[in-house]
Amino acid sequence: MVIVKFLHLMSLSIWVGSIVFFSFFAAPSIFKKLPREAAGDVVGDIFPKYRAIGYAGGAVTFITLAVMMNSEKDSHYSRPVLLVLMTVVSLYSGLVTGKRAASIKAEMRDSADAEKKETLRAEFRKVHAISSILNMAVLALGIVFIFLTSMKL
């Protein structure tokens, strides 16, 4: 059971920690030091790996939580509900919102029409805002999940 608890805490810590690091340190520094388009390319290259951390973290955290709840006969469902929400929001953000943002960026690059590019930029800003909100929602849920988990220790 010690290994299960370790994997649970490790996957949760890496997942939530990656959100904090990427959102508050890496992305702002990348955009501060590089030209906007180059920074966007770097962040765009990082996103699939960043999202994979969330998907894997959600899966491992959920599996280990199920094992722990089963062995401890814990019938309180706030943590599983939070975890499902975190995972669903992460999946939606990556598979729907993230793909839409990437598609818009590709359209902007391919377009020679300045007016169309400006329309696409406005659409990208909206999709990016939604993505940012979803990311912060996962972070907030993750912090609550960590708090609830710490109460179990």
The gyration radius over C-alpha positions equals 18 Å
Mean pLDDT: 94
Using DSSP, what is the number of strands?
0
Class by helix and strand content? mainly alpha
Shape: elongated
N-C termini distance: 13 Å
Key terms for this structure?
0% strand, mainly alpha, 4 helices, 92% helix
Account of the 3D structure:
The protein has helices at 2-33, 36-72, 78-110, 114-152. It has 153 residues and is mostly helical. The mean pLDDT is 94.
Topology readout:
Layout: H1 2-33, H2 36-72, H3 78-110, H4 114-152
What is this entry, summarized?
This protein is mostly helical and 153 residues long. 92% of the residues lie in helices and 0% in strands.
